[in-house]
Structure formats: C-alpha cells, structure tokens
Design a protein that fits this description.
Two copies of one chain form a homodimer.
Chain A lengths: L18 H13 L8 E2 L1 H8 L3 H13 L3 E4 L3 E4 L4 H25 L2 H19 L3 H19 L2 H21 L9 H12 L3 H17 L12 H6 L5
Antiparallel strand pairs in A: 1-3, 2-3
The structure holds a DNA duplex (30 and 30 nucleotides).
Chain lengths: 239, 239
DNA sequence: TTCAGGTGGATTGTTAACGATCATGTCAAC
DNA sequence: GTTGACATGATCGTTAACAATCCACCTGAA
C-alpha cells in the first residue's frame, strides 16, 4: 500500500516516473474530484506536469481509457469520462454484485493488525469529515473500500474495485447533489465492527446496504455539473 | 456480438483493423489455447499477421497486459501470461464472487429470445464436444458465459468476465489435466433451465457449483504443459 | 448585429530512424 | 571437451520530425 501523498506534483527531473504512477495519480485526482468529468487532458500539459515524454503520457491515457476513466475522442484528445446514466447504473450494479463479497472475504481474513489499520483510517476519515475537508474526505472514504479489498487479499478484485470507485466519483460529480460525499462514516464503522467480530454475513449485508445508500443519493435523471452537457449536445462530433 | 470468424487471418490491406479487433482476436486465440502460456508475441510477427503498423500492435499489447493476459518484459518483449498459482486462485475466487450474481441477473432479465439463443448455442457446444473438436468446444463454452453476461445487461461486468474467462483458459492450460475442457455441458443446460423458469437463486447456485467444479479440476500444485517451467528456467527459446 | 465562410494556430496521430538492450553463435583458452 | 568471453544479429524502447485533423478567430456581407 504505497500511496504517494497527493501533495508533491511536478517533480522536475530525477528518477523517471513510470506510467503506473501516472495512472495512479490521475485516478487519485479523479477520485478527489480535482479533475471533473469532461476535463480535457492535454498531452503537452500532462507532459509538463509529470516531466515525461509524450509516449509515456499516451500510454497512460490509453490505460486510463481501457478502465473507462477517460474517453479518447479521435483527433480531439483525452477527456475525463462523463459516465452516462446507463453506465452509472451498471457501475452501481457491479459494485453491489462484487463488494459485498469482498466485505465477506475481508471479514473472514482480517487479522488484528488489519482491524487496527482500518480503525486508524476511520479516525482520519472522521477528522476530514468534521473539518469540512471535502477532498480528503472523499479520498479517504474511497481508500477505505480499497483497503477492504486488500484485506480480502485478492489482487484481481482489488483492481476492479479501484476502477469502480474512481468511476463512482465521476458519477457523483455529475449526478450527485452538491455537497454529497461518497460514503457515510457510520457504515464504515459498522463494517469495521463486523470485521472485528468475524461476522462475514453481516459485513456483506452492511456493505450492500451501504452501496444502496450511495446509489440512492444520486439522481440519474438530472445532470448537475455546470452544463457540461452542452458540450456534448453542440459540438460533440466524434468519429 | 460481431465475432469475425477466427479463420481469416492476415487480410492483406484494405480496411484498417482497429486495436480493439486485435485485442479481441488475441483473446480468442488464448481462449482456444492456440496461444499457450509463455508464447512469445513478437511485434514484427504480429505486424505481419494483422497487417498493421508497429504502433497499433504496441497499443494492443499494452491493452492486453493491462488485462493481465500478456506479460511485458522490459527489453524482451511480450509473452502470453503464465498465471501463478496465487493468481489462479484469485481468478477463480473472483469468478465465484461475480458470476453467480451474473447468473442471477440474467435469470431475472432473460426473455424468450435470449433463452432460444442460449439453447441454440448449447446445441453447438454439444456438437463440438461430441465430435471431439476441442478448440470449438473450449471457445463455445467460454462464449456461453459471456452470453450470460450480455443477457444480464451489464457492460462493466461483461468486460470483467471476458478477462476472467480468458485467464481461466491460461490457468487450465498450465495446471489442468490434459484433455480437461473448460466446462461441463450439463451445467450449462441446467443453467438455461433455471433461466427458463426465471429462478434467479437456482441459477446463482448452479453457477457457483459449476465454477467450483471447474476449479476442482485443476491442480495448482503441479504444472503440466510439457515442462513450460523449464523453458523459463533455462533460456526461453520459443517463437 | 448576425451569420457564413475562410484562414491560422494548435493539437493529435503516424511514420521513420536511431540507440539500447538482450539473445545467439563463434572462437579461443584451459 | 568444456567453459568463458566476445562479436554479431535481432528485437525492443525512445525520440524526433512530419502529416492530418480540428478548433477558434477573424473577416466580410446581408
């Protein structure tokens, strides 16, 4: 779990930064909603930002596109994805199908150390939430889910969940009421409690309810987000 | 589902072939076990095979690597992935966590047309199985699972399952007893029956049992495959 | 004032050549 | 005969320049 702090951008030139790190950083920025849906990701800008050549940026964007976190429009460039209502439903449905099982697995496999790490993390979440630090709150609540997947000990599912969480941030950015955060802390606390008691079924049920709650907080019929829709209506002429 | 027949390789030069198609074709070849684990995928060879430039091949290989179907070794090239025992366990665990839910969803949403399509497909499966056509049998039994995901109507999960099925073929290629096929037809028939009766819970349980059965047929402790391990130990001289 | 058309700039997509790294085969020494 | 080093060839990774496309701005006329 080596998440480099989101603070140090733009390390000028020393050790080469791999495309894995670039992808990870962009994922994180999307989760924190520093990169709103529809944002153009210019190649040259990213080259400067990360201090790497164009090829590496290109590869990173392709990787991000394969996870459906960015959209590549032919001859127009890369944009942060704007999930449709249909895609949003699919993402929620997928999370509801996968993450309860992850919670179940985590409950079976969590040891004392894991519980303690989660509790510490929950503390950070609460602090960020109380102090109104929206970005940290969003990032931390997302990280909680990835930590659960790590405890579950399945790399395949961890990767899937990272993708789904990132896309959820995009969905909330588009369809969520302003001020709505990703998760409720209470649910996370209950989840930790279920893990502590080694109660897989309860962990699964809490997670399912948790996800249903998140889904209920978005309105897939009305897009917020400063009329980003206009762009697609008037000049969206993709190949 | 526009799967171009796997027969016509090497269309010389006319309409450009996109990297999506290249990825799909390689996926298919891996599923059919025409590309055994560890096979070297030379760039120039693929350029010739698909009649495209090196860049497109490179992008395709990167995409395939992001799905963990090929491994990219620095300065050495791309190879068909050889899942470790740990990865194999994770793939099975992921399938067991996801696909029963897919079956459940499919049972809820399948209409008469879907059922009929599945039944037709099962017929093809049986024919291939009876006639000893191993390649077709493997491909068709894999396609059955993707068709189920399509009926479930969730593109996100469909993509995940395609990846998992492909990797399962690699796992069977390494750890499976020779002659073992991917799936049993009986289970597929039962699955169709559950869908016909709109019995989501039974569909889910059949799928779970089906996957457990597949997993039980591989022995993650002994690698078969003609000492593929030796090749990696002493100088990988393939292609 | 508004809309149509054209032009310039910028950005992306592609190709080609170069440099670096690794594998293979040969040859000499022990 | 075996082992080690060396040279050669091939393949991959990178960089740079070029071509194509699109967007925005500007101009001009109704």
């Amino acid at each position: 779990m080596t998440l480099p702090g989101p603070s140090t951008e733009q390390r000028s030139s020393a050790e080469e930064v791999g495309e894995e790190q670039i992808v990870e950083r962009i994922f994180e920025a999307v989760i924190e909603q520093r990169l709103p849906p529809g944002t153009k990701l210019s190649e040259s800008a990213l080259c400067q930002a990360f201090g790497v050549g164009r090829m590496r940026i290109r590869r990173s964007l392709l990787l991000l596109a394969s996870r459906e976190v960015v959209e590549l429009h032919s001859n127009r460039g890369a944009f942060v994805a704007r999930p449709t209502a249909k895609q949003a439903r699919e993402v929620f449905e997928a999370r509801l199908a996968i993450e309860p099982n992850v919670a179940r697995m985590a409950a079976k496999r969590a040891n004392a150390e894991d519980i303690k790490t989660l509790a510490r993390h929950l503390e950070l979440e609460s602090q960020a939430h109380d102090s109104g630090n929206r970005r940290d709150a969003i990032r931390l609540s997302g990280q909680f889910h990835t930590m659960l997947a790590q405890i579950a000990g399945n790399g395949v599912m961890l990767r899937m969940i990272k993708e789904l969480i990132t896309r959820t941030s995009l969905i909330i950015g588009i369809y969520g009421a302003p001020g709505v955060t990703n998760c409720r802390d209470d649910d996370h606390a209950d989840l930790i409690d279920a893990l502590r008691k080694t109660d897989p079924e309860r962990a699964s049920e809490i997670m399912a309810e948790h996800l249903r709650h998140i889904e209920a907080r978005v309105d897939l019929k009305t897009k917020t987000g400063a009329g980003v829709d206009l762009i697609s209506v008037f000049g969206a002429r993709d190949a």
